[in-house]
Hints:
Helix 1 (about 25-40) packs antiparallel against helix 2 (about 50-60). This protein has a single domain, classed as Orthogonal Bundle (Hypothetical protein af1432). The chain contains four helices and no strands. With about 90 residues, it is mainly alpha-helical.
Amino acid sequence: MVGWHHERWDGKGYPDRLAGRSIPLAARIVSVCDVLDAMTSPPAHREAHSWDAAVEAVKSESGTAFDPDVIDATLRCLDELKSISQASRHGD
Length: 92
């Protein structure tokens, strides 16, 4: 999954330029999780985005960068995902 989580639903990703359902489902899920985590984590060179801003960013890429079905599933469990994210940052 690590090798394909930078593929995009529209086929413009890397390394293999896979598109749509040719990208393994687990990689499509990891892709969304990775972006949410990266955006909400504070790196050394910028402030972290808010959870809501990160969610809006992935929603805006539904059907282009991300599988629309994975985005829909993500949106159905946002409260739980946010709770997990916050707990992991605070060592809970």
